[in-house]
Specification:
Order of helices and strands: HEEHEHHEH
CATH topology: Aspartate Aminotransferase, domain 1
Radius of gyration: 19 Å
Structural class: alpha+beta
Oligomer: single chain
Number of domains: 1
CATH architecture: Alpha-Beta Complex
CATH class: Alpha Beta
Shape: elongated
Distance between the termini: 75 Å
Helix content: 40-55%
Largest sheet: 4 strands, antiparallel
Strand content: 5-15%
CATH superfamily: Aspartate Aminotransferase, domain 1
Number of helices: 5
Length: 151
């Protein structure tokens, strides 16, 4: 009858919650390791900074600012390899510097030069390595083209 909840779905949902809670600590640690692997590689570049606290953050989130690089150009350069965003998830459709980074006192140029990596359950360390190397190559290419424009 209308309004009656389907018992098998309720039982299935309860089991999914149970499994999720069981796996949450180990999955969170795995995401932290992936995030730290990405940051370790990216931090070898000059003039790159992590936005936010280095450890007190979501396990699958890495937000960085890259000096001398336009965030939108970096976003486009990374699109074939990674799904990244500039700004917060709730304002990803707008082309504006992150209001959060501005509120934290970051200069506007660094807020415009920020991108956010979201690492998830199905990502692997091999994928993180590919994304890191492609990000470095893209940043170096953008910086080189910017230097050519200035000269």
């Amino acid at each position: 009858r209308s309004g009656t909840l389907y018992t098998p779905q309720i039982v299935g949902f309860a089991k999914a919650v149970e499994l999720g809670l069981e796996e949450q600590p180990s999955e969170s640690q795995r995401l932290i390791e992936l995030r730290e692997g990405l940051w370790t590689t990216l931090s070898k570049l000059e003039s790159i900074q992590i936005n936010g606290h280095p450890t007190q953050r979501l396990s699958g989130n890495l937000n960085i600012s890259v000096e001398g690089v336009d965030g939108a150009a970096l976003l486009l350069g990374l699109q074939p390899v990674a799904a990244v965003s500039s700004g917060s998830a709730c304002s990803s459709a707008t082309v504006a510097p992150s209001h959060v980074l501005l509120a934290l006192g970051h200069p506007e140029n660094m807020a415009y030069a920020s991108i956010r990596f979201g690492i998830g359950r199905f990502n692997t360390m091999a994928e993180i390595g590919l994304v890191a190397e492609h990000t470095i190559t893209t940043i170096q290419s953008l910086r080189q083209s910017q230097a050519v424009k200035i000269n």
